[in-house]
Design a protein that fits this description.
One of its GO terms (biological process) is amino acid transport. The protein is of the alpha/beta class. The chain has helices at residues 2-17, 37-56, 76-89, 100-113, 142-159, 176-192, 210-219, 230-243, 259-265, 287-298, 304-322, 328-336; strands spanning 23-30, 64-71, 94-96, 117-119, 135-136, 167-173, 195-202, 223-228, 249-254, 273-276, 340-341, 346-347, 350-352, 355-358, 364-369, 372-377.
Length: 396
């Protein structure tokens, strides 16, 4: 027995005394509970796929990359508390978060603390305009997305000249991102000669949109430009059909990009267009392979949110490989010099048109056709042509 105890003690000491494998830690602030949890879970899937790939390929200079993921509970206050913890801990960079109302304050705080930050999901222009030398965004912003929508509307107008597209009605939530995209939409409508015949914001938590939709029906818009979060977009689509609000083009940002949107509204989802940063059928090298890896990890259909999570961590790993991970200044300089190609997009942070640390990514327009999201614009990246115009609800 004495021999057995001594052997066990020796084994324990050997394990305790073994040198731990060197690691590089990255902090992640993500919405895993609260209003934005559906998006946060998708980002976590993409981050994990990227992490597996990075470590399978040697990690960071031979060291394993690790993620410390903290839930911000879909609240800015919680996110800031976590950011303070990461800043004190000495992580080389932070990735976060989903909502612009969270990421905006986060970017300001981490800038003051001189901690490099990569934006995970937020797209409000103000985060990178005027921006900060410590904040970087590989995904699109509201200027890029708004332009993609109106380029698409112009494309449809020029493709079918017998289907006039002259008027637009806008419905959007009062959060940071919907407001930002609506503002850009109104600017572009004026610039390109579209008449705005409806302009209505709504509060978070509203479930009955019928009074607004009935007013829009009276205005008879050619285009519906809607910016909504997950459940809002489902309710709006169902109620559009209920009140008979028709339009030749229906664009619903954010919610319509989710696979669950199609599952929840069924055939009513067909013909709806939405802007994304990535899709499985886009003509980028490696896009299909990435789709398969994301699908396997998610256990279901992935969206561009998983791809954005993957992209954020791939950008971080590329910078960390070229930097001294123990020096935040070195990491910031490496991020500023980023020039890589991924299956999601190319990344090259530039300062242009008032933006700083913003990747000039091309947004894609997906249209739901027969229950599936299909890339239809721009032409050189499209898998199929857009189905246009949208038929009236009574004829479907």
């Amino acid at each position: 027995m004495r021999i057995a105890i001594a052997a066990a003690l020796a084994a324990t000491l050997a394990i305790a005394g073994a040198p731990a494998q060197a690691q590089v830690e990255v902090g992640v602030i993500n919405s895993l509970s609260g209003n934005f949890a559906a998006f946060g879970e998708r980002y976590r899937t993409g981050l994990q796929v990227a992490l597996d790939e990075i470590n399978a390929n040697g990690g960071i200079k031979g060291q394993q990359l690790t993620l410390t993921i903290q839930d911000d509970r879909s609240e800015a206050k919680s996110a800031l508390a976590t950011a303070e913890s990461f800043a004190s801990k000495g992580v080389p960079l932070v990735i976060g978060s989903y909502a612009s109302s969270i990421t905006g304050p986060l970017a300001q705080f981490l800038t003051r603390q001189k901690v490099p930050m990569i934006v995970l999901g937020s797209a409000d222009d103000s985060i990178t305009k005027p921006g900060s030398p410590w904040v970087f965004r590989a995904k699109h912003n509201s200027t890029i997305v708004g332009k993609a929508y109106f380029d698409y509307f112009d494309h449809l107008k020029n493709t079918k000249k017998d289907v006039p597209l002259e008027t637009v009605a806008m419905l959007y939530g009062n959060g940071a991102w919907p407001t930002s995209l609506a503002k850009e939409g109104k600017r572009l409508a004026s610039e390109r000669g579209y008449k705005v015949v409806g302009d209505q914001s709504y509060d978070q938590g509203v479930t009955d949109f019928r009074p607004i939709l009935n007013r829009f029906r009276g205005a008879n818009p050619d285009i519906l430009y809607i910016v909504s979060y997950a459940e809002d977009g489902v309710a709006i689509t169902r109620q559009m059909r209920e009140v008979g609000l028709n339009a030749k083009v229906i664009a619903i940002d954010t919610s319509a990009a989710l696979p669950s949107f199609v599952q929840q509204v069924g055939k009513s989802a067909d013909y709806v267009a939405t802007a994304v940063s990535w899709s499985q059928d886009v003509k980028y090298p490696g896009a299909q392979e990435l789709y398969e890896r994301l699908k396997a990890k998610a256990g279901g259909e992935p969206s561009f949110y998983e791809a954005e999570g993957y992209l954020a961590l791939m950008v971080a790993a590329d910078a960390l490989r070229r930097a001294d991970p123990k020096s935040r200044d070195s990491v910031r300089e490496a991020l500023a010099a980023t020039d890589i190609t991924t299956p999601v997009t190319t990344v090259n942070f530039k300062s242009a048109e008032g933006f700083q640390g913003q990747n000039p990514i091309r947004s894609l327009i997906l249209q739901i056709q027969d229950g599936k999201h299909v890339t239809v614009f721009p032409d050189d990246l499209a898998a199929k042509q857009a189905q246009h115009p949208t038929p009236e609800w009574s004829t479907r």
